[in-house]
Predict the 3D structure of the following.
Amino acid sequence: MPQKGLLLRILEHDTGGKIFLAALTVVAVLLPVLNLAVPEGSALHVSTYTVTLLGKYLCYALLAIALDLVWGYCGILSLGHAAFFALGGYAMGMYLMRQIGERGVYGNPELPDFMVFLNWQELPWYWFGFDQFWFAMLMVVLAPGVLAFVFGWLAFRSRVTGVYLSIITQALTFALMLAFFRNEMGFGGNNGLTDFKDILGFNLQSDATRIGLFLATAITLALSYCVARYVVNSKLGRVVVAVRDAEDRARFIGYKVESFKLWIFVFSAMLAGIAGALYVPQVGIINPGEFSPLNSIELVVWVAVGGRGTLYGAVLGAILVNFAKTYLTGALPEVWLFALGGLFVVVTLFLPQGIVGLLRRRRRKAGLKEAAT
Amino acid sequence: MNPLSVFGKRRRERARDTAGAERHTVTAGEVDVSHGPILYLENITVSFDGFKALNELTLYIDDGELRCIIGPNGAGKTTMMDVITGKTRPDSGTAFFGQIMDLTRMSEYEIASAGIGRKFQKPTVFPQHTVFENLELAMRADKRVWPTLVARLSGEQRARIDEVLEIVMLMAQRDLRAAELSHGQKQWMEIGMLLMQDPRVLLVDEPIAGMTHQETERTAELLTSLAGKHSVVVVEHDMAFVRSIARKVTVLHEGHVLAEGNMDEVQNHPAVIDVYLGA
Ligand SMILES: Nc1ncnc2c1ncn2[C@@H]1O[C@H](COP(=O)(O)OP(=O)(O)OP(=O)(O)O)[C@@H](O)[C@H]1O
Ligand SMILES: [Mg+2]
């Protein structure tokens, strides 16, 4: 089977990736059974709440892969990557808004409630087309992609790097947050977009739809992982790492460094947009808070904790940190931010390669011992 | 003979300016060396905060020539290479690659693709890549983004990389990360990267620092063998080494050419003895 051959070739030498994809497959097969087929009273039953929570983690994992591509592989520390996630989320949210139709509080078939509330008479032009699923999906990748392209083109061409680049990415997401807070922008102001009813005709409140969304997320994550692995395994991937380690050298052997940075940045932004689009129907809301600079910083912590430059490390970090966050914000809400800060300090000081680096070191040591005896 | 007297004789004549001269047919990307020199540096001045690292430097390198550049620390040798490769823009003066390529208007990657390769004074390699991958990245190829994404090594290309690995004696280190190489090995690997690029002009800044006597000899052999097919510009402090390879030597001092000629002429030049060899 050529398909299988391709997959095996992509995952060659990627033990971490194989483990991750195997685990993801097991979860994707078991979860629907445990949620839909096992009766609610049973100890084995998995609640829909948990399914949605896990689906959310998988979206974060995809977002973490996106950041790992630019930060771990290309050395561009973006502190605004949540902006691309949010844009993808808004594109999906606009589709879901239009699906509500007459079922809104005001019963307007054309206009979402918040527009009726603002006394708007007609749909703004940039909402056109979002009643079509395909158009919305196109925007899910195009909106973040175009923003990343314009931003990256300006920044990389003027050779903005390092801390300065990080700061302007942070400024970018902050500016977008302020813009989306404004009611006149036409994206629902600080309430954002919510009260979604259905997606492609399926009721968003039903367990089956929830499972469907979870599976769609798992499949997208797996596919994206493979595509990202293909990219970093390609010669382009090696150039990108070369740019990270010795940017000037890459120039002097004939690579137009700006173009490579731009390519990986735009690709990453599109992945982040897809993650956002999968996230919104599961959590049921998108608001300007998603642009918050803090979100982007948390994202950096996930990747740092898991270990950058490995892809599966980013996945691991995203899931572990968010699991801890869910637990802590439930048990000791005031502690979370301190825990996050502490985690970052600890990882930076003691685990520069994150958990994956730690595991690798362990294994190498074990290997050495074995060789010695 | 006063080595300075050669100046002015060979000003670069641009094809389009030369009235009545035969028409040059120049394919895009090809270097036009029909007038002899491949590199023309004329009246180049580079200043850093008022300090002139290069001061009205004028220098020509012939196609296929092996040229040694010597000069005391801070003479501007590295800065000259920075100007040629687009790293530093001159405040004034012109730098041409062949008859028509204006180096001062080209970016680093364009200059590299046009056929000027460089080995840095301080070895700069890709530390996280293996020796093989370092050579692969340097290899002459379509280096635009999309072709790079789908690029696959052909058997021929693999063979070429292996061949270069043999030349630079790094076959055994093929799959070692470059970070793990010794200083001398890194020097060799950079030379290997230069070979992979297959450039018209090789700029080699202090190639033998950190090399053993034997390695130095091999470097001399290699550089001499490259001349002819390529133009090679070598900056080096080691006089014995320069003597062993030099045909023509240029002495730089305070950002301009002090003397030019064969090793003996240069060494007996009073000004040179004064500022450099005598010191
Ligand atoms: N980026 C820079 N900023 C300020 N001064 C510089 C810069 N680059 C070079 N210089 C100065 O210009 C002068 C020429 O430097 P250059 O590196 O070209 O000398 P060199 O001939 O290569 O010397 P060496 O033999 O030590 O390598 C030196 O005095 C150096 O300090
Ligand atoms: Mg120097």
